[in-house]
Each structure stands twice: as structure tokens, then as C-alpha cells.
């Protein structure tokens, strides 16, 4: 059963977004984020297809969470094999499942990072029994899950210094516990500041078209007892002009070697507004979100999503049938507009290629 878990040192409770239940024949339990905040419903993925659908339709979402889910998806792939199947056949099934799951969403690099890491580990086991291969892949998925929990906690601890007493903080989309295995990235910074007894106010952009800010971020912060105010996306400039925002903190889906950062559509606009108003703009992300194989943000693939998401709102049609829709899910914020990237390995101020390379070793996969 998924439930809440104590945020570091029992300060308050945070939600558990996903959890593997059982051994190699188990299943992945997820909070169905499509239903929040109206209903808290969980779903169990017992095969690769149901996990693919859960990722594609955003039942599970957020860069670190889909990485962890993807790794467990490889455990599900191995459950399909029978006693007569060889380890070679199992490795082929893994490659197939890896390719299929990787085709669910293109932007967040954590998905590819986790899939590749678990596949690499499995391939190193070539020649052992099918059951030991299953155990190896489950152990690697569990390691990715546990590491993510720890990375989230450290990001919060490194980042809480940027939240000053009495500050107004703007965030976009949801980079909370729901988006990770742990206590989130951008929201982890807020949780740790809250734990220290700081008083501050968070403004959560509603985040059109799917409202991750209004539905998920506001829900998480409210549960933690943090002062949160929901605003429509087009209100951010006015709030900055009024001096209500002292820092912007968001998560990330992929960070290029030079620090350019893909995050939910609308983040780029916020970075320009922040620059104009002299407000520091922070990205909070684990090292698994860095893609050091690409030099700049221009190389980050941007997911395009269905027109339906834009022309319907809560089941009601809000634009004429047949109208042309453009629905990119992410945009890229330039490194020059990022005051610092807060990682589990420390803070990278004024990020650029040299500073990032110095702080983070090359991609482990
Ligand atoms: O489309 P989503 O909801 O998966 O987009 C999520 C985001 O953009 C988050 O900000 C990002 O993944 C960081 S989550 C710690």
C-alpha cells in the first residue's frame, strides 16, 4: 500500500509516489496523478504495457519518477519469460522493453538513464540463470529508487539556504514528492526550509495545460503545512513587478552540459521575467537529470502532446473543433539566466560547461 512517509527527521509527512510491491514476481504501485487532487487513487502496473500507458498518460510523471518507474518496468518485462526461456532470450526481451518504454516520453533524460543503467547491469550478468537475472534487475531498480530518495533529501539540504525568512517563492509545474521517489527536488528545497522553521510563501503557477502546479504542487505543499497560493500562469509577471517574488525555484527534465535546462513549458518565460525583475532563478535537480552527452539545450528533444489537452478543460470544450493546436510540453531555459543549479552533490552557481564538469563526473551510463 502506498502511503505517506516521514520527511527527513519526522518533521512532517510527504506522499510516496511509487513503490515496488513484492519480489521478482511483484508489481509497481503508483499514485494515479491524473486523479489528484479530487481523489487519491493508486494503480498497480503488472506488465510493460500498463506501465508504458501510465507514463504516457501522466499517471506517473516527473523526470526522476519516470526514471525509477522505467527501471521497474524491466523487472516486469522479465516476468513474461517461462522456465524454458534462456538468459539470452531474456536479455533480448529486456532490450525490447527498454526500447518500448523509452519511446513513451522523449524529454526527461532520467528515463533513458535508468533504463540504460538497469540494462547494463543485466548484460553484465550474462551466463547466469533467468532467476538470478531477474534478481539483478530488481536489485538495480531498487538501488535507483533508494538513491533517488537520498538525492532528493540532499538537494533540499543544499538548496534551503536560498529561501530567506519571509520570502516569496515562485515555482512551476510539480517537482515534489509526486515527481520523484523521495521528497522532490524544487519542493524538497521548500520542505527543508520549512523544517528549519523558516516562514515563507510559495506561489504555484497552475501550469497549463495539465495543471500540475494547481493540482499537485498546491496539494503537496498544503499537506505539508506550507503557505501556498495558486496563480494562473499569466500572473507571474505582475507578481514580480509587485515585488512579491524573491526567488524562482523549479525542477528540470534534462540539463545539457552547458547548463541549458529543459523543464515544463512556461519555465523559459519565467526565466526571462526573473532576469528583467532581478529575481534569482534556481533549478533543483539530481545528477541523473544531466545529459553531459549534449552540449547545449538546442539538442534536447521536446515532447509534443495531443491537441485534446489544450482544447478541452476539465471535460469541457474550450476551443473550436478542428482548430490547429500547438502543444509542446517543455521549453529550454538558457544557462545564463540560471543563478544556480542545486544538485545532490552541491550547488553549481552561474552554471556553464566548466563549472558543471568540475562538479559532476561524466554520465555513469
Ligand atoms: O510533464 P511532466 O508533468 O512530467 O513534467 C514534469 C516537470 O516538468 C518537472 O518540473 C520535472 O520533471 C522535474 S520533477 C522533479
3D structure, described in words:
- The protein has 365 residues and is an alpha/beta fold.
- It folds into 2 domains: 5-153, Four Helix Bundle (Hemerythrin (Met), subunit A); 159-359, Rossmann fold (3-Layer(aba) Sandwich).
- The chain is built from 11 helices and 18 strands.
- The protein has helices at residues 48-56, 63-79, 87-102, 109-123, 130-159, 186-195, 212-224, 236-241, 267-277, 308-311, 353-359; strands spanning 4-6, 13-15, 18-21, 27-31, 42-45, 168-171, 201-205, 227-231, 247-250, 254-256, 261-264, 281-284, 290-291, 312-313, 316-317, 330-333, 340-343, 346-349.
- The strands form 5 sheets. Strands 8-7-6-9-12-17-18 form a 7-stranded mixed sheet, sandwiched between helices. A 4-stranded mixed sheet has the order 13-10-11-16, with helices on one face. The protein has a 3-stranded antiparallel sheet with strand order 3-4-5, with helices on one face.
- The protein starts with a strand and ends in a 6-residue tail after the last helix.
- The mean pLDDT is 95.
- The structure holds 5-S-methyl-1-O-phosphono-5-thio-D-ribulose.
- 5-S-methyl-1-O-phosphono-5-thio-D-ribulose is lined by residues 58, 61-64, 108, 173, 175, 179-180, 184-185, 212, 250-253, 263-264, 329.
